[in-house]
Amino acid sequence: MPAELASRIDRVTLFTLVAAADALVSSGITDPYELYKYVHVSEVGNTIGSGVGGLQSLRVIFRTRREEEEAPADVLQETFINTVAAWVNMLLLSSSGPIKTPVGACATAAASVDIAVETIQSGKARVMVAGGVDDFAEESSYEFAQMKATSSAEKEMNQGRDPREMSRPMTTTRGGFMESQGSGVQVLMSARLAIDIGAPIYGVIALTSTASDKAGRSVPAPGQGVLTTAREKHFSGGAIGADVRASPRTAPGLGLLPEGAQSLLPATSADGDRTGVSMAATGGGGESKSTGPSVERKHADSESVISHGASTVAMAPWSRGAKGVDTIAMDVDPSYRRRKLDREMRQID
């Protein structure tokens, strides 16, 4: 990058450019243009977000300008949170796919992954670059301390704690979170595409979810809303729709679904005229089938898979007990219930 350009770009963007380049290289993509051998430019998207954005640029606007010191003419654009994702696309990806910029304070990166997953599942993109970035500045650090949201380094050191022990979010002695600066970026794609292009698979996303906390008077205070991620939903007959992805673990005629099997993708049957849900998990040998709405149970000996139309998406295996977990696949024929009712009426006649 030319030094002149780097001097005009806020450092949160520089952090993110380095993180994005590292994520691509870790995915086996040394040249982003390699992606376009396998996907169209409109199928590569970006959901990189931030909590505040370019703090250094904000300081230039509110302090340097006021003091009539020299400042870049286009510094305003560097304060916009979506500018980070824009630079990543302009300087690295050169795609024309979806760009969605989440802003969720400490949860920005989690929201970014959630949006990226939904974008891939909806078919709007096949590759998504997700992540978050934030900066550290005197102003924000002071204001967080006024809110008593961050831990006090002085108090922690007086209690004999090492700086590495000052962030303890899951303990009863936690004294607040610790601030930092930097960026984290991930490259997300379907397993089928990862296999086709030879990209390493570091992990499989089983579930992403966000939740609000109902009524309240404190913005940063944690609430109970996250517990709704584990809520139970029942199938209400008919075709299985998007609600299945919420987290049902029981269904009429299927019994208990495997733990962790929260995200179910649409699938197409062999004859191509029935759509429904297909899900797989790890288990032993053997298989069985039943009649009706084509409910199928199998055992998979190795890695679990999710079948999505003609493609197969590899999933990380999970086990439940010594015998493993049954594979469950279900194709729902929208006209099945009507035909069944017709048969019953003919029998009555």
How would you summarize this macromolecular structure in one to three sentences?
By secondary structure, the chain is an alpha+beta fold. The protein is built from 9 helices and 12 strands. Helix content is 27%, strand content 17%.
What's the level 1 CATH class of the largest domain?
Alpha Beta
Distance between the termini: 80 Å
User: If helices are DSSP runs of H or I spanning 4 or more residues, what is the number of helices?
Assistant: 9
Please state how the strands of the largest beta sheet are arranged side by side: 6-7-12-9-8
| Most strands sheet | 5 strands, antiparallel
CATH topology of the largest domain: Peroxisomal Thiolase, Chain A, domain 1
Give the tally of β-strands. 12
Helical amount: 25-40%
Which whole number gives the mean pLDDT? 74
CATH superfamily of the largest domain, called what?
A: Thiolase/Chalcone synthase
Shape: globular
Number of domains: 2
Radius of gyration: 25 Å
Which regions contain 5 or more consecutive residues with pLDDT less than 50? 238-332
